[in-house]
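Predict the structure of Type-4 uracil-DNA glycosylase.
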Amino acid sequence: MQNSAASQDAARALLAFWRAAGVDMDDAEAIFSARPATTAETRPPQQAPARVPFQIDPPAPKAKPKAKLQPADDAVNTARALAAAARNIAELRAAVGKFEGCALKATARNTVFTDGVERAPVLILGETPDREDDEQGRPLVGPAGQLLDRMLGAIGLDRKSNILISNVIYWRPPGNRDPTPGETIACQPFVERLVEITQPKLLILMGKLAANTALGRDETVTKLRGRKLSYSREGLKPPVNAMVMLHPAYLLGRPQHKRQAWTDLLFAEAWLQELGVERAAHL
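Done. Here is the predicted structure for Type-4 uracil-DNA glycosylase.
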């Protein structure tokens, strides 16, 4: 109320000033007096904004984890068809060379398949080719392979007499990175067919990738080594004897584990003797 009276007094003082200045204001007073007050007491009360019920925003949906890369189904089916049609190692080698379903092939220099005796009683599966393997197109020919040859020679095994060596991946990954699950699965039909064709008396799996790929497990080498295992697949009778060893590339950087490797070799030697596998004189 006090604010309203003060406002009207100020307006009348302004009109008096205009009148004194000679401004024609005959009707100004009447207009002003008749004008409805625009102050707060004459204005309709403002309504408070409608009260919005209290709401809790739903949590933002969590981003779905990216799916692991997998090869296209048709690539896997192609690998299975090519592998199944191979009747011997030569045909299987040609099938692997023809296969285009693994992206690693595009960056590798050579396909690295097998080395050794085709009908050997011992089949050794490693992991991935390294630089020397990629250059020569043969598995385990670099420093790790040379260490392996010395190790196997200590129990009467060598590439020219009684072993066949291969990998579970046939092309070197760029920069020696780990292969993706999809790249591994793409090669698996050929790995399985190699075991079926050779039917070794003993399958030696070197390294975690080789062991878990062949055995369908997810365990460390430490848990798997020193045990009599078996490799089985539908249509493969009887199952193949299998064992797990440390990969020689792993041993190159960890000489303190060579004692474990020697224990693995003695385990393999005893099992081979039990199986009646002929071996050369120990080096």
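Residues 20-24, 34-42, 52-61, 63-71 have pLDDT under 50 and may be disordered.
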